[in-house]
Amino acid sequence: MALGAPFHLTVLYRGPLSSCNYGCPYCPFAKHRETPEEHEADRAALERFVAWVESQPFDVSVLFTPWGEALIWPRYQHAITRLSRLPHVRQVAIQTNLSGPLGWLRDADLGKVGLWATYHPGEVSRERFLKRCAELDAMGVRYSVGVVGVPDQLPEIQAVRDALNPATYLWVNAFTGGRPYTRAERAALTHIDPLFEVNTRRYRSRGYACQAGETVISVDGDGAARRCHFISTPLGNIYAQDVRELLAPRPCTRVTCHCHIGYVHMPDLDAGAVYGDGLLARIPEGPEWVAPGAYLERARQLWRGGRLTGL
Length: 311
Fold this sequence. Notes:
The chain is α/β, with parallel strands linked by helices.
């Protein structure tokens, strides 16, 4: 990318934090407890990243995708507040279980903040989780709610959907660690989440266009920039060079892509038509969300064209 060209960069930031206050059996992450020294290293890395965003001469959006739960720590609350108040930051979002305090959001620019909130039955009561959602509604915070589509938890997932604000999108991630879904289970989950079908596919991605590495990058605590979380080869380091020198159109090198934060950046799917400005927080706001049939049809066309494999 030519230096000086106007553009908007989206950064998925994942620092060294790897602890969580939950212990979900289906989650492969956050099985570590940080020492005070490790927390300090994470704090320093986060501060360095926020300062980097502050110094950039172009528009930036940030999605925090921690290995564990970050919003229980004041440093992440302060980072999101600080970023949201920067004039060149368009959006700042974070994945969270909503277990931490929420009052800090009143100091943030809520027009820019979005929460990607996940409900974990067995780790928190439905009543407590819904109370947190009601607090977000009262403050006017933009958020989505999601669950892992474990078949045995279908009644609980439906109960949460019934109790949530009808305007709140509830997404369902396909559960890949068990038996295949029955036809009835797929139908029930699609009734809850009209976009569930898209998450049940593995997209054949090798050799196909993706915005990852061009307008979207993944950055770790040391500043290493990669195309996305799923391609380990670094492009360079944001602290060692102008990040725009690292960006270029590149075909994907992975065989398949099956995670929402990956495949939504594939131009063929045109996820922006459904999510609009809510893309980072998984909040459908685009013109096709009212009737997302075109989005699903694009996925099916890719399927018929050999671009997808089913879960």
